[in-house]
Each structure stands twice: as structure tokens, then as C-alpha cells.
Records
---
Amino acid sequence: MPLVLWSHPFASFCQKVLVAFYETGLRFEARLVDFGDPASADAFRTLWPLAQMPVLVDDERRLMLPESTIVIEHLHRLAPHAGLIPGDPDAALKVRLLDRLFDHYVQRPMQKIVTDRLRPEGQDDPLGVEQAREQLRTAYGVLEDELADGRRWAIGEAFTLADCAAAPALFYADLVEPFRAGWPRLAAYADRLDLRPSFTRVIREAEPYRANFPKPRATR
């Protein structure tokens, strides 16, 4: 198998790439990264010392590619028919901009809130969490305005890299800082993403790990 994806089905940035894989129809081998298993963790760190998932290995082209956006850029080169990046330069630039917005201003603050729940009692970061929540609320407003023209997907009628980023970002963000009550266009877009077959498959594959999602801390 020329394409090997080192990932975990419950990790949001890995889900972003899995959506892209299922959109393209490209075949790949999923290599599970389990940081609770020393052998698995050591093997992954040997491959990529920064130990951030996902990582794609393309043996045929002698490539090792970390970072979800870079992986999807490569998938687009292999399967341009899927249209993950538009041929029009202006539309492609817009897709890349929205991809960055979802990654940096939705995924990252969402992860801050989630990982704070995993800290030992008394070592949490309430200020950092509130700043992350504020950034999420600001991003929700930006996205609500972005969707004001009634587009179906992130840039229009085509499902792209930006939507691959949006699907897991919004799915998990809604669990930690809900947006459905205050941002109706964003909520409707998230509903459409949830029904996209590629993302439905990703969520189904992650279901066995759903119990691992950290619960909110008890109110002091």
C-alpha cells in the first residue's frame, strides 16, 4: 500500500484528513497511533519526532508529510477530480484562508478547552480556557457573517479542503462552546456537514472512542 496514514480516528485533525481521503476515494492503510502504548508511541516518534498527528507516508513518491493541510494538498495532487482545491486561483485562495480560520480559530481554542479538562485537579488554566471560549465566540461571528450569502459549503456549491477542516472543528467545538442558539447560519452549515457521507463515516469510525471525550469539570 503506497499511502500510509498515521493517525487516530478520534483526533480532530486526523478526522479532517480522513474526510479528504473518503472524498477522493484514494486507498490507504490506517496506522493507529496510540500514545498509551509505548511501542506505538515510540514508532510514531521515530517517524516524526514532534509527534503530532496526522502524518502521511507516500512510499511510492518517497514522501513523509505531517500537518493536515499539507496532507490534503498532496491528496488533491493525487486526485484532482475530487475538487478539494478549486482550479480558479481566487477560489483556491479563499479555500486556503477558510482552512486556516477553521484550524487556528476553531480547532485550536477547542483543543485548549478539551486538554485543560485533562490536567490534574488544581493545575487547570481557567483564564486560558475563558480566552479560548472568547476566541471561539468571535470565530463563530466571523463564520456566521461569512455564510450570509446562503452558500451550501464553505465557499459555495463545491465541497473543498475548507469543509474538510470545518467538519470536525465545528463538531467538537459545539460540544465545548455551543453555537446553535446564537449563530443559526453556522448551525445549519454544521448540520449539512454532519450529513455529508464522508464525515458521517468518520464519526461512525470514531464512535468506539467517544467515551474518552473529557467531561466538564465540576463547578466549584
---
Amino acid sequence: MMNPVRLITLAGIILVAAFARLIPHPPNVTPIMAMALLGGATIGNRTLAFLIPLAAMFISDIVLGLHGTLLFVYGAILLTVALGAWLQNHKGWLPTALTAIGAGMLFYLITNFGVWLTGTMYPKTFAGLLECYVAALPFLRNSVIGNLAYTGVLFGGFALLENTFHALKPATEPVNA
């Protein structure tokens, strides 16, 4: 059984992270992939690990506006939650950092494929797809930088909370009183 205090705290962190998109920021420097990694790595219930980041993203998308590549963005979020679940058995700063970089690459590949497929800016040819990916390279750099920074903040911040407030420990882990 999932610790309800832990679940509510993680859901709150993920929701706040999703709404950080409303704060002015450089293009693609957002906590979206970091929140998906955090959900996958820390929420023991698989269904909730996927639903909470998606719901937070959807709520923030309602405020910001829905767009034509929504399914591609949400697909990247789902795959990133799965990467986060992998982190449950691969703890440490290096696997976490490498996963954050991988999530940025995944987001870049999936969402720019969506831009090419659903948009009108690029011809529907292999050359058009390559043109789309090349044009998006500055966004990839920003995405990876943002992922690394926000992953550090979210994972580090939650670890600090977890070590400070024992009520946030996973239910399966004994709490030393």
C-alpha cells in the first residue's frame, strides 16, 4: 500500500512542476520530463505513476492551450515515466543524470516527429524530417539543460524532504523513530 502522505506530497510537487511552465523561461527549459521521471521513480503504484504526471500536464495545458502535438508530448511523458520506473532499481546521481539526458533526447525525437507529421512547415519527406530535426537542435540543448537542472531540483528536493520528514518514506521501508 502506498503511503498516502508520500503520494499527496509527490502529486503536489508534480502539479507545481507542471505549473512552472507558466513562469517565463527559455524555450524548452521546463520541468516536464523531470516531473515524469520523478513520478516513475518515486510513486510505487504504477497506474498513479503514469496518471499523476499526465493529469498535471493536462491541467497546465488547459491553462496554456491545447495544441496539435499533444499526443506526441504525452507519449514522451509516458515513456519518461517508464524511464523513471527503471530508476527505482538504479539509484544514484549518475543513472539519474543519464536518464534525464535520455528523456531530453526522447522528447526531442518524439515531439519533433510530431511537428513534422502534423504540421505544414516541413515537406513530408525524409529530407523534410531531417530539416525539422536540425531546426530543433537549439531546443534539444535547452531541453537537456532544463532536464538536468529540474531533475536535480526535484529529486534532490524530494530526497531532502524524505530525509527530514519520515512520514514521506515509502510504506514498504521501515521508518526509524
